[in-house]
Amino acid sequence: MNWIGNNLPLIGERTLDHIAITAPVILLSFLISVPIGWVANRFTASRGIVLSASGVFYAIPSLPLFVALPVILGTGLRSPVNVTIGLTLYGIALMVRSTADGLASVDPDVTQSATAMGFSDSSRFWRVELPLAGPVLLAGLRVVSVSTVSLATVVAVLGVPTLGLFFTDGVERNILGEIWAGIVMTIVIALVFDVIIVQLGRLLMPWTRSSSAAVSRPGRRTRVVAPV
Amino acid sequence: MIEFRAVNKTFPDGTRAVENFSAVIPSRTTTVLVGSSGCGKTTLLRMINRMVDPTDGAIEIDGENIADVAAVKLRRSIGYVMQNSGLLPHRKVIDNIATVPLLKGVPKADAHRHALELMETVGLDLSLAQRYPAQLSGGQQQRVGVARGLAVNPNILLMDEPFGAVDPIVRADLQKETLRLQRELDKTVVFVTHDIDEAFLLGDQVIILEKGARIAQQGTPEEILANPASEFVADFIGADRGKRRLTVSSTAQPQGDDVVLIDAGGYAAGVISAPDGKLATGHSSPKSRSISNKTDQAGDA
């Protein structure tokens, strides 16, 4: 365990590297999945195809993918672009299904009433369907976040600096403390990301916690109404 | 005035929902489309705001063919209230009511002020303004739905079985409110229901529909009750079930100035005023039809 005490700055540096790689991947996975998930949900014919394709994609072993991608993209093996695209593809594979499921979970009564009110197709999507798909999107994003943080350790094998380097290096040099540092910091990042995502969700979707919270909010006229 | 001219609707799956429907819905009155499930009444209603476009035929509002009006613009000018309220669950009550004004670009402060006025109009406690729909009872949600339908002060209000999902007592309350609102606001209301009692209670004009939205009978509740046009209508309004035809009970003793009425099944169905043992005549207001409604709700509850 001496190793940890002597290498705190290095642990900090690798942790930041790890965050720098994973945070954009999680964001990109989300942004790219929204239109794909929309297509999957919008047209019955595309739903099966898109969802099975994304499912199959997730089954591709990660190492060969990271080796093959530079050949296809023309980037270097250790280029951050290669790593970002590879990880994002896995993120999308997970997130597309959540997006499609989330959009499908929106009550058709609500979308119909929104249409009847005079929402145009695009405003209905952005202002009604996407927000209401939020809870399912959030659940999906939490999985993507954890999966990305853990998967990003693999790219250390390519020599890209992440917490995964502590695994390869620790195994090679037989330093148990180094391996432990990598494991613990990976879990810490995953937990912190999860907390951030959940808090963002609470902030952006106040209605999801309203049913219990606001009724008993103190200082207001509390006329408790039984939900029908 | 809304006019349907030889309107047909065949859905892509081949269902003929509407067959050659023609009717005039006069302004500032309530017209009720009533029929069993699948008779095409909701399809007719949704044609008025272009949620459904007819396969052929035309629908005109004040002489203008609505096919020539952009659907989104048309919908923003017509109030729509639906079953289960269809409120946006992620928006507070006040924002739900202000939905269409906000879509049309009315400043938020103005839209909210107007929304609060509408809450009073429909009899909602203003303390509910900051709640989310899920925190309201079914009856309150329906009132919010009505307030939202009125938010742009539309000439036309479409109501699609708005009280179908609330319990009978709340429904009676909402029906009363609807009558009051109609007296106060003077809108052209097109109301869809499968409940003939609701139709007779609310409708100035009632259109009874058979499958394919074929008109079985069209007229005032009084006309239809007095002269059912067909076996189907008679059956539908319950005439032959004896629910409508009430007779003075020969066995029950008059209670004070009231005489007990029984239906064909022999069940007590209501009372009629009979001061000094004589039936009151000549003073029956048109709203006396609500007597039959009362009996039905007693049966429901």
What is the gist of this entry?
The complex is a heterodimer of chains A (228) and B (301). Helices cover 77% and strands 0% of the residues of chain A.
In the CATH hierarchy, what is the class of the largest domain in chain B? Alpha Beta
Of all chain pairs, the largest interface belongs to: A-B, 30 and 38 residues
CATH class of chain A: Mainly Alpha
The fraction of residues assigned to DSSP E strands of chain B is 15-25%
CATH architecture of the largest domain in chain B: 3-Layer(aba) Sandwich
Task: Supply the CATH superfamily name of the largest domain in chain B.
Answer: P-loop containing nucleotide triphosphate hydrolases
CATH topology of chain A, anyone? MetI-like fold
| CATH architecture annotation of chain A | Orthogonal Bundle
Strand tally of chain A is 0
Computed CA radius of gyration of chain B, to the nearest angstrom: 21 Å
What is the residue-mean pLDDT of chain B, rounded to a whole number?
86
Structural class of chain A: mainly alpha
Shape label of chain B: globular
How many strand elements of chain B? 13
The neighbouring-strand order within the major sheet of chain B is 6-7-8-3-9-10
Protein name (chain A): Osmoprotectant transport system permease protein
Transmembrane segments (chain A): 20-40, 49-73, 132-159, 179-200
Pfam families (chain A): BPD_transp_1 (PF00528)
Membrane topology (chain A): Multi-pass membrane protein
Report what the structure shows:
The complex is a heterodimer of chains A (228) and B (301). With 228 residues, chain A is mainly α. Chain A is 77% helix and 0% strand. Chain A has one domain: MetI-like fold (Orthogonal Bundle), CATH 1.10.3720. Chain A has 10 helices and no strands. Chain B is α/β, with parallel strands linked by helices and 301 residues long. Chain B has 11 helices and 13 strands. Chain B has helices at residues 41-48, 71-76, 93-97, 99-103, 108-121, 138-150, 168-185, 196-202, 221-226, 231-237, 290-300; strands at residues 2-10, 16-25, 30-34, 56-61, 64-65, 78-82, 156-160, 188-193, 205-210, 214-219, 247-248, 258-262, 268-273. In chain B, 33% of the residues lie in helices and 24% in strands. Chain A binds chain B through residues 107, 109-110, 112-120, 123, 128, 131-132, 134, 205, 207, 210-211, 214-215, 220-221, 223, 225-228, and chain B through 46, 49, 51, 72-76, 80, 82-91, 99-100, 103, 125, 127, 130-132, 134-141, 148, 158, 166. Chain B: It is an enzyme of class 7 (translocase). Chain B: InterPro entries: AAA+_ATPase (IPR003593), ABC_transporter-like_ATP-bd (IPR003439), ABC_transporter-like_CS (IPR017871), P-loop_NTPase (IPR027417).
